[in-house]
Amino acid sequence: MTEQSANERRQPYFSTFQLVLIALMAALVVVAKIALRFPIRLPGHSGIFWMAIVIVAAGIVPKRGSVALVGLISGVIAGFMGLGDFGALNTFLSYTAIGVVTDLFLMLMGSPENLIVSGLAATGGHLSKLGVKWVFGLVTGAPIGFVTLGLTYSALSYLLFGALGGLLGALTLKALRKAGFFAYLAEKR
Fold it and tell me: Rounded to two decimals, what is the model's pTM?
């Protein structure tokens, strides 16, 4: 075995620069959840902002697992900050599910710059957060009929804001590409 082939196998999956970008996007997800809210009383409305950030993260670091890592890191940050209405474990699992499901959708369907793909991926990711809440309702023994009835209204809202966030993220990626941001990133890697 040559020294060069041994070094090639030791290359990390994510570069340090990519990990910094992933951590930055995860922090932005939490900041968006805290700071960017419409003055409306619809469940999941902040998803329009932070699902856009998740889609942008998928475009900036186009590797499998990058969005799952964004979800995991943002879940840790949000859990430690006490965000969420059902405690740290629910918050951590919700954010992680968003990243994993969005990553799976993008892996199966294609580029996050495609408006349809990003809209569907963000919708799936955002609905997974609602799914975690539903599972927590089951685990805690809440009456399932009551929980399902309440979540049906929420699911429509999550679907709408997730799709809008995905579209916003794809449009942001297109604007970044047009502005030359990805050429700049290529130089930094």
Answer: 0.87
